[in-house]
Amino acid sequence: MTPRGWSLVELVVGLALTGLVAVAAHRALAAGHRAHRWQSARAERSAVARDAMAILPGELRGLDATDSAGSDIVALSSTSITYKAVRALRVLCRAPVVADARSGTLVVAEDLRWGTRGIDPQRDSLLIFAEADPTTPEDDYWVRAQPAALGSRLPCPGGKPGLSLGVRHAGPSEGLRDVRPGAPVYAQELMQLEAYADRQGDWWLGARQHAPGRGWGRIQPVLGPLAPEGLRLAYYDPGGAPTGVPREVARIDIRLVVGSGGQAPRGARHRARTLDTLVLSVALRGNRRGSSRATWGLSEPGAP
């Protein structure tokens, strides 16, 4: 008996079933692809948040805006801050040689105690600890100075290598006379952090350096991408009241809204929440009443 062929109805039904299976498979693959993209975007936002929590407190916590010798904060706004960032720490190994009331020579240990580079007289200023009476902390203060060119190598006590460094300062008349061996000498660089949009319209937290005679350098991305206008800075005095005066700042609150794309996969609990918010509260150096903290979570739908 010869087997019969497929009828037209059977062919149509078979093609219809095949089409349904293909559509279902395509939808499953598309859903998996969307879920992968969303999870990848979420992982990227989490990575940006971790970087922010590592970078920003370390960059700003060392500032002291309320010191009588002057503020480390030069200018501030809700989307930018200009400040003197600590870049290196050396230790004085000999008593300063005082030339007059406003200048002298330091000898610092050649080995860095902290930092990634040495003192650069072309772009750094100095912060030098002065201790008038070693028996009490009440008269301690900081001397702000401008370094001249690095001098010759001189030995520190014990034979360790040292560097001579000429400085000029605008501190109190006693100035370098209250600076003792073992005093920390910080090198500070003028920096600016601000939010900006690149040529593609993506927002970033960027940084740039200032070089005397050359002005501000080109801004470089540090963190991002952010939501449009996804950076907000708020400043508070030692009593916790908002302030816009650089010399009164004791705490800085930073709000970052991270990420800009990717809709959550179907069925996700927070399907419309595609932006994550990081809030950092950074207590500055010298603010004994403050503390640093961070919170991290999903933004509300439509949040900027």
Per DSSP, what share of the residues sits in E-state strands of 2 or more residues?
A: 35-45%
Parts with pLDDT < 50 across at least 5 consecutive residues: 261-273, 298-304
Q: Strand count, sense and closure of the main sheet?
A: 15 strands, antiparallel
Oligomeric status: single chain
Let me know the average pLDDT: 81
- The number of strands is 15
Number of helices: 1
Question: Would you give an account of this structure?
Answer:
The chain has 304 residues and is an alpha+beta fold. It contains one helix and 15 strands, in the order αβββββββββββββββ. The chain has one helix spanning 8-60, and strands at 73-76, 80-91, 97-100, 103-109, 114-115, 124-131, 140-155, 161-169, 184-197, 203-211, 215-216, 220-236, 251-258, 276-283, 293-298. The chain has a 15-stranded antiparallel sheet that branches. The protein is elongated, with a radius of gyration of 29 Å. Residues 261-273 and 298-304 have low confidence and may be disordered.
Write the layout of secondary structure elements.
Layout: H1 8-60, E1 73-76, E2 80-91, E3 97-100, E4 103-109, E5 114-115, E6 124-131, E7 140-155, E8 161-169, E9 184-197, E10 203-211, E11 215-216, E12 220-236, E13 251-258, E14 276-283, E15 293-298
